[in-house]
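Supplementary material to the annual report.
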Amino acid sequence: MARKQEVLQDVVIKFAGDSGDGMQLTGTQFTNNTALLGIDLSTFPDFPAEIRAPIGTIPGVSGFQLRFSSDRVFTPGDACDVLVAMNAAALKANLGALKKGGKIIVNTDGFDSKNLRLANYPDGENPLENGSLENYEVIRIDVTKMTREALKEFQMGMKEKDRAKNMFVLGFLYWLYGRDMSNTTDFLKEKFGKKPDILDSNMKVLQAGYNYGDTTEAFAITYKVEKAKMPSGTYRSVMGNQSLAYGLIAAAQVSGLPMFLGTYPITPASDILHELSRHKNFGIRTFQAEDEIAAITSAIGASYGGALGVTTTSGPGMALKAEAMGLAVMLEVPLVIINVQRGGPSTGLPTKTEQSDLLQAYYGRNGECPMPVISASTPADCFEAVYEAVRISVQHMTPVIFLSDGYIANGAEPWKFPATADLPPIHVKFKTELGHGEEKLQPYLRDEKLARPWAVPGTAGLEHRIGGLEKQNITGNISYDPENHQLMVKIRQEKVDKIAEYIPEQKIDSGAAKGKVLVLGWGSTFGAIKSAVSELIAAGHEVSHAHLRYVRPFPKNLGEILKSFDTVLVPEINNGQLIKILRDVYLVDAKPYNKIMGVPITKTELVEEIRKYL
Amino acid sequence: MSETATAPVLTAKDFATDQEVRWCPGCGDYSILAQVQKVMPTLGIPRENIVIISGIGCSSRFPYYMNTYGMHSIHGRATAIASGLKASRPELSVWIVSGDGDSLSIGGNHTIHLLRRNFDVNLLVFNNQIYGLTKGQYSPTSEENKVTKSTPFGSIDHPFNPLALAMGADASFVARTMDRDPKHLQAMLLRTNQHKGASFLEIYQNCNIFNDGAFEVFTEKGSKAQETLFLEQGKPLLFGAGSDKGIKLDGFTPKVVNLADGYSADDLWIHDEQDIYKAQILTRIFDDPKVEGHLPRPFGVFYENDRPCYEEIMALQIEDAKARKTADLDALLKGKETWTIV
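Predicted assembly:
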């Protein structure tokens, strides 16, 4: 049947259903399909902390938001054009985020009296029937019935048949957006190759969903989004935790250091462990320790032995690692501590995003205990940023804190991945023998970076002892001398400060180098700030955007940049943390914009906020 | 010139450092340090391959006094640090020096996990049944009702039985010795080193400042023969002056018998280090020497068992993964699905 095809520029779809409805999988498949067409995209998975919250309830709703566009996009979108609601709870939880006039694709079977009750609709109220959705285009599909119908010849239980429901929706959406489905059929073949029944049923239902769109006359239009105008090159889709894992592997390969990951599972960082543990062929040792403390201390042990020690965690785990971080600062060994931040304090909002561990990263240890802090701004940026964290750690002989967050970790975007040959070198220097005139190793004798020698066990003639007690400058012997302690505190601080000489200067991401408003961000606010600032610049406003990767020490020229604007606005997904440090370091009267709701800042709200200062 | 360089013969002195030893005069740690320094040169391990990791506490100053590689770390975590080091550098000889507080209280969790994973490391637990460095609070091995600075009305805690705990964590080598018996201590250090796997060696160590005489019934001439039972592989369990007494197993219950009563060595429990069931009974011989009818405290190797070490399996997995799939970073970064924009 010939149909009209409408070309769209920008689409935001939210897949929402029960935790068990397979919405994350559906979203990921549609994302990969979109990416392979060269369409720019950004995703935002949003799921409950409970593995299986009560079926049909609002706390049990799992969502996956995907924005795709023929233009460049930097956020998953503030509001949705299309909402896929597998049940009443999914509709209720997400209707607020749907644009007026948007499409709602509903599974009518998910709106029976039980589902309505579980979603807390008043008795006798059904949003599909009471006219409350008249401002939207509602596409009603009895997904359950049609899935069962498609599988009527299959010898499997009803429950098992119903599991393929998400494939029906996916197939329908593939039809609606004029897609080829081969990436999903390939995926299904690989995943269920050994379970022919499940493979066949999923394929059948996927095709049934597609055919449903194709043969049902009610659907008059299909949609198409053209390829985005992106810099030339070869791309892939990548998620934050995945690109972070790749960055670590790449850094280990390039530096020639064997990597050791000591970690303890915690949301939303665990996927880094999962990813790294699959790549043992790169010589990576992954160690699932008994707790967060063993995770970091085992990594310290590995670093002491000459490996690239890495530990991954999230906020509460970071708190547990604090004492050991102090040890690493005293030992002055390389170590990369990755904190994929989540909502806090305490257990907080484990599956929601927040940027609230910056002060913990800066100050959360006993004593004067400075450590460099590096942050990632997007899923793909994790690769380069963590690579930098490794470089700084091994070249400056210091533990480094790396901050990501739940939004970056689970989000996906196109990645113009680098060729190995183009990766910058990471020089590692082990001390292998005593220097001229040296009678025994001076473990705290420093080079021009103030880095001490990395002399690892097994090196004859360099036997020495180090530890967490204050040490005498140069010799490393225990020292309680007051002058020496002050000297050592100052040296450890200076060593970290000096890193500013070995990192790039801060760049302005969008806008002029001076003007009315500078929006200064760090971490996952990148997309929202970039989108908001771009829109205002296009509207002729004097506003600029700079985004920090190096949070400690700051790039050398940051102070100058801050002075070049009338107002510095600092949006953060916390109660104001970077801004405290900026005010402290630069005495700048920066303005905060804080959102602490476990969700990203939207472009729209930020545009409104920036306008106040224009 | 000779083709082959011969390694210089090292002595105990070569394992001493220029650092002033700062334990209290009369501390049991001096003896342990001396025995370790004596034993180390005989192990045939190059000095640079020996690493001593400690936590916090009096015993944990140990690495500073040993001319090897060493790390004085943080409280309770030496076992975890050693795990990471051994996992990434299996060829090193890793020794952990710890106390009863360090390894059984704040670091208890890491201790049991180190043992179950069976890293090939040597864990020396200096047990003095007191917190020395913090000046005299009771420890997790202190006897009940102990009056200390933190327990003026007597402690309520039930103490750990360290060796039973180690057996419970599936340690592959479990032994006990004491600071005041240098020969036995040396022998146990040698056995500890020989064992491939996690070795748990409890060393009774006298804290003459805060808990003086805690083990004197086992160490002093007048009572030692009656109160101690030295275990030897394949030998009957004999003790007492002139080995006039023995231990017999009555079902699962150990009983003291007098050889003068007509018992011969054939009637006695013959020690078998490989027997996990008997080893557990042995670790349970933990009687209070003040109680009438108590059994003597065993010393020696309670249990030894060969099972694969964590770091070995880890290395095998990596070798296996490398053999199956070349480490191609470009291929990894590219992934399965890409698209090109011209």
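Chain B touches chain A through 59 residues (CB under 8 Å).
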